[in-house]
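Bug report (template v2)

What were you trying to do?
Predict the complex of my protein with iron/sulfur cluster.

What happened?
Run completed; filing so the output is reviewed.

Input:
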Amino acid sequence: MAALRSPLLTTVAAQRSRKPLVRRRSPDRSQRIRHIVQWAFLALNGWIGLQFFVWVRYFERGGEGLYVPRPAGVEGWLPIAGLMNTKYLLLTGRVPMIHPAAMYLFLGFMLMSILLKKAFCSWLCPVGTLSEGFWKLGRKLFRGNLALPKWLDLPLRGLKYVLLALFVALIGYMSAEALHGFMQTPYGLVVDVEMMNFFREMGLTAAIVIAALAVMSMLVQNFWCRYLCPYGALLGLASLVSPVKIRRDEEACIDCGKCAHACPAQLPVDQLVQIRSVECSSCMACVAACPAQDALQFALPPRKAPISAARWYRRSIGPVATAAVLAYIFFGVILLARATNHWQTNIPRSVYMQLVPHANELSHPGM
Ligand code: SF4
Ligand code: SF4
C-alpha cells in the first residue's frame, strides 16, 4: 500500500526528540529565495518560448510579419543535442556549428551538478518547478501526497536510468562524422521547431500521456523527476562528486525528524551525517524545516572542532551563495559562448525559409 505523507506527522516526529533544542538564530530564507529563482527562470523560459514562437511564425508566413532573432537559449530544451555536441567536441576538439548553445548549456548544467549536487533540478529546471507546483497542489487538495512502497519505488526509480542508458548507448555508437552528419540533416537543423510543433499540435495520445503525468505529479512528489527524467538521472550521477552536500551535525541535531519529513525525495536525512543520494536535489527543504542551530546545512565537509559553530564556520553554502553560483555558471557559459562566437547557430535565413514551414514533414534520419 502507498503511504500518505501528511504534515501532521511532524508533530509525532517532534515528540521523538530528547536532546535540548538550541533554536536557530536567524529564520530560514532558503525556500523564498529558491522560489524566486525558480519562477524567474520559468519566466525567462516563457520569454524565450514566446520569442521563438514569433520567429517560427515569421518563416511559416513566408517572411511576413514581425521578425525577431532566433533565441539561442531555446536549445536548452535540446539536451540530447547537447549530449551529441559534447561528444563531438570531445572527439574532434571543435565546437559544433549547429546548436552549439545546447552544448554550452548542457555543460553548464553538468557543472552545476558537479559543484552543488542536483541544484539545477530544484532551482532552475522549469519542469522541476511545475512538478513541485503540482505536488504542492495535490497536497492541498488531497491533504497529503502518496509515498509509493519500496518494492514499487525502487524499480520505478530505475526507469530513468534505463532511458538514460538508451540515449547514451545510441550516441555512444555514433562517430564524429555521424554526429556531424545528423546535425546537418534537415531534421537536425530544425529539431527545435519540431519540438515546439509537438506541443503546438499535440495529438490525443500525447495529450492523454501529459494529463496522466500531471495527475501522477499531484499524487506523488516529483513523479516525473523521480521516476522518468533521464536528464535528472545524468545530473544525479554527476552530483555524486559534489563536495557540497546536505550535512547533519549529530551533536547539534535533536533527532526531531522534521528534515526527513520535509524531504520531497523521501531521504532519511535525520539518520545520515551526509546525503550522498543521487535523488537529493539541493532544494534545502530539509534545512528550512530544521529547528536547531547548526544541525543541518548544505555545506562543504566540516572542520575538526569541538563545537558545532566552529565546525561549520565558513563551510555552509547558504541560499544566496547557491543562487549566486548558479547565476555565475549560467551567465558565465553564455558569455563564454558569445565571446567566442559560438552561441548562435548560424544558418542562412533562406534555409530556414525552406525548412521551418515543413518541419513536421521531416523525418528522423534514423527512421
Ligand atoms: S535531502 Fe534536503 S536538499 Fe536533498 S532533496 Fe531532500 S530536502 Fe531537498
Ligand atoms: S537535522 Fe533533522 S532531525 Fe536533526 S534537528 Fe534538524 S530537522 Fe531535526
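What did the reviewer find?
The pocket of iron/sulfur cluster (ligand 2) is lined by residues 248, 253-259, 269-270, 289-290, 292, 295-296 (CB under 6 Å). The first helix runs from residue 9 to 14.
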